[in-house]
Design a protein that fits this description.
The chain contains two helices and eleven strands; from the N terminus they run H-E-E-E-E-E-E-E-E-E-E-H-E. The protein is mainly beta.
Length: 191
Amino acid sequence: METTYIVKSGIDILQSCIGQKIKSITADDWDGFDRSYGAVLVEIGEQGIVIDNDYRTVKYLDSIEEFTGFTVIKLANLDEFEPSVLEENLKTQKLDDEILSIEIVRDVINVEWLLDRQAEHYIVDQAIIFKFAEYEWLLGLDSTITPMISMHFGKNVKAFIISTEDVISEWSDVENNDFNVTVERTVMNLS
């Protein structure tokens, strides 16, 4: 099974970006919108990293389901970037700002069957926040079932992260009250 959180190698890549300058961000079709349906290319120094939110198969209760989650990879060169759309639908935003720190907002979603008290736990990274001197840049999940990345720039970008109440609602089955869902949210600070 696959994970719905950023694995250690991805966290190490993000950690290596701190103190470096972002030159540009390239993503599909986010011109005029605050969302991207594909991979986001972040040009940092002479290297590129790709932050993607795509489907992966996960054991969920007694079945296999498709959920989304972030993946972070480092490219040997920028030409390796494979967008999910035609090049004319890509937008590149030029930047020249040093990354001071990065936060990962992580949820542990607990699903407990009420009849037999059996519990399952799922780790989902809801957002990655790049912090600069004057502003922040958020890449957030809109949902764990839709592979979209919401992107926001500003001073209080955490306001755009899906709330724990919305996560509980998304994971709950309104027609079947046989289980209870709770969420524990933490913030991992890379600096």
